[in-house]
Fold:
Amino acid sequence: MAAANLNQDFVLTWGDGRAKILQNGQLLTLSLDKTSGSGFKSKNQYLFGKIDMQLKLLSSLGSAHDEIDFEFLGNLSGDPYILHTNVFTRGKGNREQQFYLWFDPTKDFHTYSVLWNSLSIIFSVDGTPIREFKNLESKGIPYPKSQPMWIYSSLWNADDWATRGGLVKADWSQAPFTASYRNFNARACVWTSGSSSCSAAGSTNNSWLSQSLDGSGQGRIKWVQKNYMIYNYCTDTKRFPQGPPPECSMA
Structure:
């Protein structure tokens, strides 16, 4: 199957020429220098989906809306990169989990995936699940299921907080910094004028809509979280002295 043409799926939104779609739509690059970063967004909105994107970093630094976040935080040269995840519902986030990656994300492309359906949100790296946020609405926990979302990606300077809490500043002599994207794949419900493509007649191949983690997947999440998780909001007693958010004891 031919790789998707990124021109069909995304629009470059800011950066004054620092964002580019190259190789006949097969590669998208974002660039950051001392003046500006850059970004893009999807042409479509989605309400549930299985979204995959291959991404290669090159020294990158990392409202009542819903949001599902993959972020890469900057580092000292030679230190592992930190993958930062978060889930916002109705404008409220504060559900951060952070992981060291078990590879150098600047050396090659790796696939970062989000599976979002009515059961759960599953974050995966190269097919390995690293985090699950379950739908616990029946227990009173808000879950993103009614607001369609665009896909956004940007490369920007966050050295006031993201690089070891702002301790490490960007070395602009190494600029421009670049992130490269390819092989976007969306098995998803496109939301147009108040209706979902998944409810259309003839809509097929939507097995992901009911997909959840099996025992093997649960085991792999435990392995990643035991060996590579470096921050979990559920165990941050300084931040939540009255006790962690309720979903932490239910998940």
Observations:
- The first helix runs from residue 6 to 9.
